[in-house]
Amino acid sequence: MTLKVFISYKSEYRPFARALQTRLKEWGYPTWLDVDNIRPGEYFRHKIQEGLDTSDALVVVLTEEAQRSREVMAEVDYFLGQQNKPVVPLRHQDCKPLYIFVSIQYIDFVTNESNGFEALRTRLAELNAAQQPAASGGEAAKEQAPALPPQNPDAPPPPQPIPPPAPIVAPGANTATTEPSRRQPAEPYPDKQSLPTQAPARRSRSGAGRWQMVGAAAVLLIAVIIVPQLMQGNALPPDLTSSTRDNTMPLLIIGGLLLLALVGVGAFLWLRRRPESTFTRAEPNLPLPKPAPDANMEQQNQPYQPEESDSSQIDDLLSMDKKKDVPAAAVLRHTDYGEYPLAGKTLAQVFDDLLGQMLVLGTAQARQQAWDELAAALLARSKADDTRPVPLRLQLNAWLANRPSFDAWLAAQAIHAYAIPEQAAQAWVEHDQLTLLLDGLDGLSADQRTAGLAALQAYRRAHPKVDVVLGGSAADFDALTQTLDIRGAVLLAG
Asked: Most distant CA pair in the chain: distance in Å?
């Protein structure tokens, strides 16, 4: 059986991916390339999954854009973690490879592309031979493997294959029943699902423990030494003179007051930081603010006032994914794979398939309903699992009013929307525990639009793990996909 190769790349480098595919076919290897294997009318996510499952090796075209791409990194992560199959990185552009690629040894195409192809052919021949049945002593494998290239005395020695790392499994997990996940890309920072939701709280509790120990020691000293001396001023040994006793008592009193002051300062600092240590991310029990479409921007960003019916609405949130389908006339438009009708799918499912980077385009009225459904579904997930990010629904032109720091603005809006302490809101922003639902792009002037998108793009680069959904008109599709590098959009009818 000949090795089947999955080609993973960023769409900007499709010409090189095509040239790579041609070379692999010349060597006798069947390939999987998205634009060839995803036909019109087929759902891209299903076909990519099928391609990953049926391929034996993954060749990734390594560029700076690819390392920032959720899709490319998700394919690498799935192949290494879930499939435990070999990944062969090709350094196509001058970039600093992430540690996961350094650890599995990439092939350098930047210095000399010809030598790079020779090293790649050698590597694939070795992988192909390794997967052949061992019963025939390796002879059958040698016959089936494509011929190795002639030796070039000037070429550098080919890199030795390094087996892919074993998948990371949590202690006690049942690997036989673990289902693959396409949502979490392999990136050089901790997975957001495992980020501590109360990292500052751990620091607070540690500081509180130290102050408690100091306080306990101070109380013990006061109880054992100072209090008896204060109550029995003449209890000093009889061999000491009265003058000595008189001089000792003020020192004991001063020492006791200092210890009491120390205990007081410790208690003050501990109580000051206590609200953050007792805050749990799952506590907010308010639905997201849902302003009327014609409300002005100041009203839309006021704290939400819960109504009497909110408790029953919150109970219904957990089944929101199953209740609300995308309108039948809606389609998913992808920059690489065309359009696909979304009947029978929920917005939350499309959000997952687009790896948390999505446009929602249509009229303001159509978007209003979509925001309600998507925000409720994401909030339900967050309530069910407090490691999931919290959705924050905002109007982009509210930031444009005075253009504060984007991080500070998000923290302020989280405080208003969820009635949480300031330190907790800052922790949400710091640890990428927010999903941004930003609407109102079509209501901006050209200058405002440029400034808003620049601020959003800068924020995304600083927080690459934050999920972002942006709303505007259908006419914005081309401009937004190019500016923000968001590949897919839900086009709403009406």
From this structure: 108
Taking the C-alpha atoms of residue 339 and residue 195, their distance in angstroms, rounded to an integer, is 35
* One-letter amino acid for residue 294 of the chain: D
Among candidates 204, 167, 205, 163, which has minimal Cα distance to 184? 167
Distance (Å, rounded) from C-alpha 493 to C-alpha 476?
15
H helical segments located in 389-490? 396-400, 406-418, 422-430, 446-462, 477-484
Identity of the amino acid at 337:
Y
Asked if 390 contacts 418 with a C-beta cutoff of 8 angstroms, the reply is: yes
Per-residue pLDDT of the chain (494 residues; tens, 9 = 90+): 789 999 999 999 999 999 999 999 999 999 999 999 999 888 999 999 999 999 999 999 999 999 999 999 999 999 998 888 999 999 999 998 888 887 888 899 999 999 999 999 999 999 999 987 643 444 444 445 455 555 454 555 555 444 444 443 444 444 443 333 333 443 433 333 333 333 333 333 344 455 556 566 666 666 666 556 655 554 445 554 555 555 555 666 666 677 777 776 666 665 555 444 333 443 343 444 433 333 333 444 443 333 433 434 434 444 444 456 676 679 999 999 999 998 888 999 999 999 999 999 999 989 998 999 999 999 999 999 989 999 999 999 899 988 999 999 999 999 999 999 999 999 999 999 999 999 999 889 999 999 999 999 999 999 999 999 999 999 999 999 989 999 999 999 86
- Enumerate the H helices of 6-43 as residue ranges: 14-26, 34-37
Is residue 28 within 8 Å of 121, Cβ to Cβ? no
Closest to 372 (Cα-Cα) out of 408, 320, 418, 334: 320
List the beta bridge partners of residue 8: 60
Residues β-bridged to residue 5:
31, 57
107: left (phi over 0), alpha (psi -120 to 50) or beta: beta
Using alpha carbons, select from 84, 124, 87 the residue that is nearest to residue 106: 87
Angle 373-334-489 from CA coordinates, rounded to 5°: 25
Measured distance CA(400)–CA(124) in Å, rounded: 53
